[in-house]
C-alpha cells in the first residue's frame, strides 16, 4: 500500500510567517516519522521553507462542495489539488510549481474579490453571486441563500412594457410628422393655385400707414368662367368684361377686433382722371389698381392687400363646400336673379347663393339691402369653410382649397401672411366678433348724370375712417 504523506491528517499543518512581526526564521515542515530532535528522515536534504496551505483543503475535502466543487473557496481544478506554489508528490517530495504554469497570483486575487492595487476584497453583488452559483449547477450556497424576488414570481417584464411604450411613441411621432408634412404640401398646392392681378396704384400720393392693416375684398360680375347655359341659368346676362359688383373694406387693427365695411358699388365718388362716377366704374375702366386708388382717396386708408372673385368662381366654391346654410326671415323671390327661396333655415346651392347675394330689385332697400346680404352670406361661407372637418382633413382641405384658390385672384403684393390675416379676421367676424357695417349713407338714390347713385354721409364716413386709421373704437351704428 503506497504511503502518501499528504493524506495523513495527523501531519502538522505548516504555517507561514506573519507579516509585521519581525523577520523570524521560516518554519519548516516536519516529515512523517521524524521528531523535532532527530531521527529517521525520508528527505536527504534540508526541507524547503514551509509553503502556504493551498486553498481548497486537503484532497477529497473540497470536491463535494455543491457550489464550486473546491471547498467553497472558488479555486477548483489544478490549484485545489496542487496548491498555489507547489505540492508533494507520491514519494513525499515537495515539488514547486513552475513559473508560467497555470494561473498567476494576480488572477487568483481578482477571482477572490481583490483589486489589483489593494489587499482588501471588493464588495460583491448578490445578483452576480447568485449567477455564479447557478452557473456551477448546484444552486445557491446553503450559507448564502439567494435574495427573494418581489411578488414571488420573479422580476416583472418591465423591459417589454418599456419597449412597447417606446414603440408607441415612435409610431405616434412618425404619424405626427407625416401629417404635418402633408398639411404643408397641401397648403403649398392651394397657394400655388391662386392667380395674381396687378392691384397696386402707381401714384405718388398714396395715403400713409395707419393702425393695423386694410384689405379690399371685391366680387366682380365677370362671366368668363361661365358657359352660355350657365349664364342663362344664373340670369347673369351676356355682358363682357368685369365690374365690381361687391366692394368691402376689411380693417384688421394691431390690437382689437376687425371691422368689415361695405362700400356700395353705386357710391358716388371721384375717380382719378375721370371725375365723379360710380365706384364700380373705376374697376371697369382701370381695373383693380384704379379701384384701389379710388378707395384710398375716399377713405384716407392705405390698402395693404387685394382679393377678388368672379361669378363662376363664387358658384364653384359654394358647390364644393356642399352648400351654405342660411336662415331667411322671409321668402325671397326675384325673377331677374332666378331665385325662389322659402323662409326658414336651408342650404343654398351655388346658383341660389349667387342670386341671393346679387338680387336688389325685389328688395325695397336696393343696394343697401344687397350689401347686408352679402356680408351675411360671406360670414356663413367662411364659417363653413373654416370648420375642423375641412381644415384638419388634408384631402378635404386640398379639394376645397384648390377650388377656392382657382376662383380667387390676389394682388401681386399680397403675401401668404396677409392672406392668412384676412382669413382669420373673416372667421372672427363670421363667429359674431368684430364689427360688420355699411359706410354711413346720406342718400341711397342720389340722382346724377351717371344715373341713380349712393351718396355718402360725409361727416359719418369721415368719423368712421378716422377711427379705423387711428385705431380708436368704432362708434358708427351698422
UniProtKB/TrEMBL annotation:
Residues 1-10, 79-88, 102-133 have a biased composition (Basic and acidic residues). Residues 1-159 are annotated as: Disordered. Keywords: Membrane, Transmembrane, Transmembrane helix. Residues 243-386 form the Cell envelope-related transcriptional attenuator domain. Gene3D superfamilies: LCP protein. The chain crosses the membrane at residues 168-191. The keyword Membrane applies. InterPro entries: LytR/CpsA/Psr_CW_biosynth, LytR_CpsA_psr. It holds the Pfam family LytR_cpsA_psr. Belongs to the LytR/CpsA/Psr (LCP) family. This is Cell envelope-related transcriptional attenuator domain-containing protein.
